[in-house]
Amino acid sequence: MLKKQLEESLAHLKSKGFDTPEIGIVLGTGLGRLVDEIKNPIEAHYNHIPFFPLATVEFHTGKLVYGTIEDKKVVVMQGRFHLYEGYDFMDITYPIRVMHMLGISKLFISNAAGAINLDYKKGDMMLIEDHINLQGGSPLAFKNVSAFGQRFVDMSEPYDKEMCKKLMTIAKDHGISLKSGVYASVVGPQLETKAEYRMLKIIGADAVGMSTVPEVIVANHLELPIVAVSVLTDECDPDHLEPVNISEIIAIAEETEPKMVKLFRELIKQL
């Protein structure tokens, strides 16, 4: 069933002109402007792609955009899916499988996250070196998973070392501050309590968010090299915790976005 659905999604996108992209990019909350960098864009709205879920979060645009950046063919997810929207792991990761079938050989992921590491501040960016899955499940836990790749996927290095190293060098060369650390993925949509922030720090998280890990697991299943960056939009200090301000979080993501766009553009150029 999944294979047939993927083939229908693929046929639709190819009919619109989506032709063997090299790089897939997933854009997180407040980080949609990378699509402005795409030359000769072709858009496919999620509600027109067979079997695609629909983005229900008001600040997530729901479309795939195909075109070129730095003379490389890319396909960009402007708007992603989350467990907290009522979707399951298969829905959330369906677009990764579609992009893989289109032909991508690299995957870039961005997200907005809260800083658990108190040395990291609002507006910082963090290269994800590792993650902790606190979402209570796996996108690989289905009966015929072996038809798509190894059931028991190794996750000792889920993020591609070479691309991570390149991105750190690019940041240094362009005077962009890029931290690195461990991303914890929770279900949401509620934000964490003070006690939960303390727990996350104890178990080794530097940042927390509600996405990314399912996509990374499936990308590893498909043997796709991944690089992922969090824009840190709030500081999760349990001893000085202030009520969440979603509009401020979006504003900080948008302010930081040009730096993330610069990093991704330069990395695309070097690949």
UniProtKB/TrEMBL annotation:
One Gene Ontology biological process: nucleoside metabolic process
UniProt entry keywords in alphabetical sequence: Glycosyltransferase, Transferase
Family annotation (InterPro entries): Nucleoside_phosphorylase_d, Nucleoside_phosphorylase_sf, Pur_Nuc_Pase_Ino/Guo-sp, Purine_phosphorylase
GO molecular function list: purine-nucleoside phosphorylase activity
UniProt name for this protein: Purine nucleoside phosphorylase
Family statement drawn from the similarity comment of this UniProt entry: Belongs to the PNP/MTAP phosphorylase family.
Keyword Glycosyltransferase belongs to the record: yes
Leading EC class: transferase
Organism lineage string: Bacteria, Pseudomonadati, Bacteroidota, Flavobacteriia, Flavobacteriales
Known EC number: 2.4.2.1
